[in-house]
Amino acid sequence: MRHARSILALLCLWLCPAAWAVTLQEMSLEELIASSTYIVRGRVEGVAGLESGAGGVPAAPSSGGPVLYTEYSVRVSEVLQGETAPGLLRVALPGGRTGGRQQVFSGVPVLLPGKEYVLFLWRGRSGRIQLVGMTQGLLEVRRGAGVAMAERQPGDGMLLNRKTGLPVHDLGMRVSLPGLRSRVASSTQRRGTSQ
Question: Where is mean pLDDT largest: 8-12, 100-104, 106-110, 148-152?
């Protein structure tokens, strides 16, 4: 009976395209801050497609073919956390288009040239800089009549509660830039005193 249930579960995954959607662990703002090597505000200046194994992008696992990446050049205007100077920062995300081929990964956001974002970033062992929590680690900067806001819309994937493992509804995120600066500084100070 156990074997039959396993086969049925695999069959459902294969036949149900929605089952291939991304599942991410829900991250609060504090968790995003604590997990980030860098938190920067900047504007996307350039976009380039890369193939794994080229341009500093790690080679794909031997079991699969090459993975395509999109490398975004972000002109950093403010560093909220981390040891990086304002300037040009290259952020690589899985999925992209190069050489007439395209790969898309659910849960990976697309950054638009000319748009300003707050990015929660980490540097992997490969040296590649990536987003923390995929869509959760990218907030678009919007300026209204009042103070500038950093926000993201709810994502299209499934979020799981860290403690229960149960699905939760993604509500997106909205925080003022001054409020974000204050929370990053407070988090950094707490981590510094706890060490």
Answer: 148-152
Distance (Å, whole) CA 41 – CA 23: 26
Here the tokens at position 173 are 């995120």
The two structure tokens encoding residue 95: 């999925």
What is the reported pTM? 0.80
CB atoms within 10 A of CB 137: 22
DSSP 59: P
Domain boundaries, the chain: 20-193
Domain 20-193 is of which CATH architecture? Beta Barrel (2.40)
SS3 163: coil
DSSP-derived 3-state class of residue 45: strand
Kindly provide the residue ranges of all beta strands, DSSP E only, lying in the chain, ordered along the sequence: 23-25, 38-51, 68-81, 88-94, 96-98, 101-103, 116-123, 129-131, 138-142, 149-152, 158-160, 167-168, 173-176
What pLDDT is recorded for position 144? 78
